[in-house]
TrEMBL record:
The PRC barrel domain binds ribosomal protein uS19. This is Ribosome maturation factor RimM. It holds the Pfam family RimM. One of its GO terms (cellular component) is ribosome. Residues 120-190 form the Ribosome maturation factor RimM PRC barrel domain.
Length: 191
């Protein structure tokens, strides 16, 4: 007799939803599953609450389509990964059925960042200017480079795409104004 698939409620993906990870393999026999987080600090995942799932873009096809809601009962760090359980997932078979699903969380549900701390997603798209007001580009990505994070900027100069990297540290970053969508740095265009 084939295992029953979990019953998941259809949902509308919030306009501020951020993809934070994907569901990995089942963990144990009681419906727990592993998470592959996209951040080294998976705090938004650990808060539990509502996760929005979309089917995997690659690999095995999910048993659901569109956006579904998953009510997470508990999520925690276990060894070198994150594990979670949800009310809709009664057993190992249900957990295995979710494998590969992409996890989204509403940005409004993220924990509040401490002063002078920022979520990477909030920095993407901000313009970066130096102290003289010269534009150095727009943040297109961030890279973890050992002990620090590096801003990866893109800019078009004379019809050519230019990429610039600036360490995201107090020695170079004067001010981050997310409301004005602007980062001011102590950096010159020819560095």
């Amino acid at each position: 007799m084939p295992a029953e698939l979990p019953v998941l409620q259809s949902a509308v993906l919030p306009s501020d939803a951020i993809e934070v990870g994907r569901i990995g393999e089942a963990w144990g026999v009681k419906g727990w599953f592993k998470i592959v987080p996209y951040s080294a600090d998976p705090e938004a995942l650990l808060r539990g609450g509502n996760w929005y799932l979309l089917p995997s873009e690659k690999g095995a096809k999910s048993f659901f389509s569109g956006t579904v809601l998953l009510s997470v009962k508990q999520a925690r760090v276990h060894s070198d990964s994150v594990v979670a359980t949800a009310g809709e997932i009664p057993d190992r078979n249900g957990a295995e059925a979710l494998r590969g699903a992409r996890i989204f969380i509403s940005r409004a549900d993220f924990p509040k960042a401490a002063e002078d701390e920022y979520y990477w997603v909030d920095l993407i798209g901000l313009e970066v200017v130096n102290r003289e007001g010269v534009s150095l580009g727009t943040v297109k990505d961030l890279m973890a480079t050992g002990p620090q994070t590096t801003l990866v900027l893109s800019q078009e100069v004379d019809g050519k795409a230019l990429e610039r990297m600036i360490p995201f540290v107090a020695a170079f970053v004067d001010k981050v104004d997310t409301e004005a969508r602007l980062i001011t740095v102590d950096w010159q265009p020819d560095y």
